[in-house]
Fold this protein.
Amino acid sequence: MEEVDEVPCSVEKWCTFVEKMSNEQRAALFGSGVHCMLEIPMIKMRQSVLKFLVQAFDLKTSTFLLNEGKDQISLSGKDIYVLFGLEDKGLNVVAIIAQEGKDAKGRIPPEWLDPSTENLLIDDLILDVELRGASDDDFVRKAIMVLLGTVIAPYSNKVISKMMYALVEDLDRARKINWNAFTLEFTLEGIRKCKGGRVMRQWPKGNMAALQYMYWEKVQPPGAPAFNPLVSMFPLMKNWTEVEGKKRDNFDAQYGRGKGNIDNDITTEHRLSKVNTTNSGGRKTPVSRKATKTPAKNPPYMEQILERVNRMAGEITLVPKQIATIADSCAERVIAKLNKEGIIYRRENKGTSEGDKESESSKKGVYPSKYFTSVHKDEDVDEDDVKEDELDNANGSTPAPSVAHKLMNDDPQPSVLFNCSKGDQKDPIQITNVLPARSSSSLSSSAFASARPNEPQKRKRMPSAKVRSPYLSEKNANKRQIRDGKTSEGKFVLDALLQVNDLTEDHVEAAVSLVKELSKCE
């Protein structure tokens, strides 16, 4: 037996193509009639097994003769359904190809064809799907064509028949096609043509994976638990991974092919009945003389229940992969919505100018202050100068003249210091603990101790923050000042003067005038 080319059927190529599909592409194939083929595991085609089955094929009975004709197995529509999950109902594919196949060749999109040979290549379709990454109807058509060229009805390992385009041109009709009967007839016809010659010069065309799965399921090693449907998955192709295939290869190499437990019926009902018979083999049931009891049969709805359970089990295996891509898909949708025109959203921009902030605040509205609505900030004092003074003090450089110093230079009258006080200017004692702490200076407070007679000092409470001017700084103010008999109510003015580093004659004159004014107030 001489082989010219490789086996046309390639489950590995189809599985590699499915692994690169996205979740959206997988979802697009659901309902196409061939979505069950997404669950097929990757496995290699055993040329020795296929050669054995082709040689054992009988043209008269369309069966495979084993053990010198003592046993035989066959491939039927029920077997295709149990192996792949393809239902045996729908439109006739052979009639569609015969009626529309030739005309469909001219309707193939030019970008599908190879520019040098105008052939429909499998690798080109796979590459085009991977580059586009879409999940539209065009993707569904190409995916079904790749499935036809690799598993269901392969002609060769590279080219797909152009007449197959008639099956996918109308997707609504493609969902109604009987893929079960099509792959069965196509495979058996390929074996008949190959078996007709004396020497097999090339591999038969068709679903060779069906022959391999059929042989492994119907010819079981002795003592294998695969006959029990409760320990196997549906469809049966999901049970045959590369690891299980190697186990069968080792068994066949040791005992020979066609040896073992042979059972031509691999349906779920038949295997359940065998399990029930085996479990009840050791028990004796009483038999009535008048009438014999017929063995109980499985209810008719059992097949539907098992089918649905197996389908659910197959779909559950896809859930972890879909969950893993939820975060990425959600992020993509959010970004797509934010990038659409007509959607306004506010985002934080650290580089916004003051003018933009003022415009935003003007849109929101500025609420008036609840306290001291009649008190206004002194226009003579500049906030920029105050900020510069604070920065100089923080950096450790020579401090700039304080605010009190500037006020005394502009207007030596002490009344300027009381513009921000609450109440009358003649009663400046109400403002306490609002200026910075006392600093070191050559001028002592004892010079002003005799300005007012000593009086018993009463404890004065700190004014509430609610009735205090918002323009007074409390950065360096103490919580409670230490009071003694030597300090006067005008001490805060003295403290302001002591903040000046370089005293001049104007400062001394201002202090003397202040003492005189205070003596008159008494």
Remarks:
- The chain has a mean pLDDT of 74.
- The first strand starts at residue 57 and ends at 58.
